[in-house]
Amino acid sequence: MTLDERKKKVLQAIIRDYISTAEPVGSRTIAKKYELGVSPATIRNEMADLEELGYIEQPHTSAGRVPSDKGYRYYVDCLMKKQKLTEQEETIILGRYKTKVQDIGTVLRQTNSILSGITKYTSMVMGPQFTKSNLRYVQLVPFDSNKALVIVVTDSGLVQNKILDLPQSVTEVDLQKISQVMNAKLQGVSIDQIKLTLIKEIYYELSKHKHIFDAAMDLIQETLDLNHEEKVYLAGTLNILNQPEFRDLGRVRTLLSLLEQEKVLKEILSEGSSSETGISVTIGAENRVDGLKDCSTITATYQIDGRTVGSVGIIGPTRMDYEKAVCIVEFMTCHLSKIMKDFYGH
Amino acid sequence: MTLDERKKKVLQAIIRDYISTAEPVGSRTIAKKYELGVSPATIRNEMADLEELGYIEQPHTSAGRVPSDKGYRYYVDCLMKKQKLTEQEETIILGRYKTKVQDIGTVLRQTNSILSGITKYTSMVMGPQFTKSNLRYVQLVPFDSNKALVIVVTDSGLVQNKILDLPQSVTEVDLQKISQVMNAKLQGVSIDQIKLTLIKEIYYELSKHKHIFDAAMDLIQETLDLNHEEKVYLAGTLNILNQPEFRDLGRVRTLLSLLEQEKVLKEILSEGSSSETGISVTIGAENRVDGLKDCSTITATYQIDGRTVGSVGIIGPTRMDYEKAVCIVEFMTCHLSKIMKDFYGH
DNA sequence: TGTTAGCACTCTGCCATGTCGAGTGCTAAA
DNA sequence: TTTAGCACTCGACATGGCAGAGTGCTAACA
Questions:
Q1: Strand B122-126 to B307-317 pairing
Q2: Does nucleic acid strand D have an atom less than 7 angstroms from the CB of B136?
Q3: Which of the pair, A194 or A16, is modelled with greater confidence?
């Protein structure tokens, strides 16, 4: 189903115009603004064809045309030219990062806020997955007479902590000992795998210290039973209020309450991870999440050591500036990968 | 400026009615719904008086009356009866808490979400202030060949961490030593005070270890230069979309973008901390934050060991159900104080 | 003196109506 | 195949009339 040159041009003109004005676009406008060298009447004929093929739609008789999801899809796949950010835009973005990388959460938050600020859409960033990281360090610290604080650090820089109840008999020295054994056995192992195999070895090691054995095993179990949820950062939710398609309060509510659910954000972001090119555009009804049927998302992943560890995405109306947005998302993920590389410096 | 009995009753009826219907209330409605034993005409006279005194207002001629800020203030101070939650409501609230307290952030988040869920307003919770807590434990952990992770734990259960660059010469053993010295000297001291006096002692202690002295001092400086911002949790922002006074998108945008700024939230919450009773109601234009002039806030503080460590608040339209809301906020802070007490168990 | 009934008046919200402009589809001519 | 012309459709907007809610005022009443 390939379109002839002129149809492509008309479709492109419609989409470009609609993206920038948010108004149904008529034959006259196209003839005037985009120099196709033909009269409105001719364009009307082309438009009738395009409508029949499903690339554009008419909100009602005697209104202009509006791109359909299929139209956007064609645009994204075939018509859109891949842009590059200008030198200037890149420096603006880079300038917004605070200088020093001190912790990974801050970097992700910054990235997120820059992304939503530049694109004017809503953006999300998902951090490295805790369970897929390797354990770097475990420490049990006495907290008060009958509680201990557990700190688990992964090599992707994530730190998790929680407080455990401590059996009476366990002393500070015992905690130290347990920490040591765990570190010795578990360092460098991925959090995922720890539960399965290695605990036996710890059993063996600790069996030399009979008096705390039972208590210790409970503690280790609890220690590793951490909150495995990876965090999703969200920014620029209010940007949707500036989109004319969200002048309706009901819609705003629906979308915002979707965005409050981390589950949904993860679902959106997981879309991209399957794609080979790393960047993925989902348009309107292609979205698996109900209630996002008139939104589009662009997602991409970032890497540490070539290993995909997280993703980044934006959400906007289907009338999104795909050309620009794709290019910004791409730049941000690249840069994020680069930061990670510098930070973990191999 | 004390009102006679009947005026009080009329004002109370107007406010009650307006709170529940959000419609300007007329003399007829009051005469019918609230049994004052007089005719609408009489009530009209009373209303004219009340309007002259500034307790109520008329949106336009031939509309009913609406309470003014002054009217609400009088209601809150004099007319409102202090309610108590029913047994049943209390069990519902308590039931929403997940059983085990594992970390302080989770407790605060839960409290927040319960509060906004029950009141149907937007709620905020501010955690213990990091700088006012006492240091419980510091640990420098090697992260990779030239970085270390610092973990600082306070006795209010806050954990902060960040990554530092490490000078070449410092070994794992050195880090351990530095941690030890810091723990020995700083445990139990409030974060506020650490910077001022105690660092000298550490200087002295570490001067025995000449070879790492300079590096160590830098590290300690950096360690203590943590992010001092206390976190404010926000929940139920979308609840405002259900309030008829926010049917207007512009207003929604103004309010939501205010709520995105942590600074503003802190300003709101700080209101209450000056009050003696612990609970504080701010109505409409009383609000210092511009853009909150047609909102009311109710804030209260919670304690650990009788020491005020954080606060809790809700934001709603001035047409807020003060009676109910005050009572819920009060209950929540009491309960929060109780949780804290159990948790830190003295 | 306080309370009430009655009445004229005002303002909003709603609906029906009419008009204007934008845009289309169709047809016939170039 | 392209274009000009024309009739038609639909939404946006302004207008006017009407109903309903509520008030303020006045005069009568207890």
A1: antiparallel
A2: no
A3: A16
Q: Distance in angstroms, CA of A78 to C1' of D7?
A: 38
pLDDT of residue B88: 94
For strand A307-317 and strand A295-304, is the pairing parallel, antiparallel, or unpaired? antiparallel
CA A152 to centroid of chain Cα atoms = 25
Domains of chain A by range and CATH? 5-79 (1.10.10.10), 87-128+230-344 (3.30.450.40), 131-224 (3.30.390.60)
Neighbours of A171 (CB within 10 A): 12
* Cα B44 from Cα B57, distance rounded (Å): 13
3-state secondary structure of A79: helix
Residue B76 has what DSSP assignment? I
Q: How far apart, in whole angstroms, are the C-alpha atoms of residue B329 and residue B333?
A: 6
| Confidence band of B80 (pLDDT split at 50, 70, 90) | very high
- Structure token pair of residue A345: 């410096």
- By C-alpha to C1' distance, C10 is nearest to B62
Rg of chain A, C-alpha, whole Å: 27
- CA of residue B260 relative to chain centroid, distance: 14
What is the pLDDT at residue B275?
Answer: 59
Torsion from C-alpha of B70, B71, B75, B78, nearest 10 degrees: 60
Residue B239: closest C-alpha in chain A: A253
Tokens of B226: 């943590």
**Tokens 């018509």 belong to residue:** A79
Q: What is the pLDDT of residue A230?
A: 78
Interchain proximity B241–A256, CB inside 8 Å: yes
B201 in Cβ contact with B185 (< 8 Å): yes
pLDDT at residue B43 greater than cutoff 90: yes
Cβ separation A144–B344 shorter than 8 A: yes
Residue A67 has what pLDDT? 97
Chain B residue with CA closest to A259: the answer is: B238
| Cα gap B201→A29, rounded to integer Å | 78
Q: Which tokens hold the place of B25?
A: 């209330």
B chain contacts of residue A236, beta-carbon cutoff 8 Å: none
Separation in Å, CA A169 to CA A142, A143, A162, A204, A211:
13, 15, 20, 20, 9
Nearest to A151 among B151, B163, B247 (CB): B151
pLDDT score of A275: 59
Q: How many CB atoms lie within 10 A of CB A328?
A: 22
Which chain B residues have a beta carbon less than 8 Å from that of A161? 103, 159
Measuring CA to CA, which residue among B59, B66, B60, B49 is closest to residue B7? Answer: B49
Amino acid at site A7: K
Residue B137 and residue A146: Cβ atoms within 8 Å?
no
Per-residue pLDDT, B315: 98
Taking chain A, what is the end-to-end CA distance rounded to the nearest angstrom?
A: 49
Contact of A107 with A339, CB cutoff 8 Å:
yes
Instruction: Compute CA distances B17 → B38, B46, B69, B92, B319, whole Å.
Output: 17, 16, 16, 27, 10
Show the tokens assigned to A112.
Answer: 């997120």
Q: Where are the beta strands (DSSP E) in chain B?
A: 56-57, 66-67, 122-126, 135-144, 147-154, 159-165, 232-235, 279-283, 295-304, 307-317
For residue B48, the model assigns a pLDDT of 95
Q: What is the pLDDT of residues B180-235, one digit of tens each?
A: 888 888 888 888 777 666 777 777 777 777 666 777 777 777 777 766 667 899 99
Give the nearest nucleotide to B40, CA to C1'. C4
Distance B62 CA to C11 C1' (A): 6
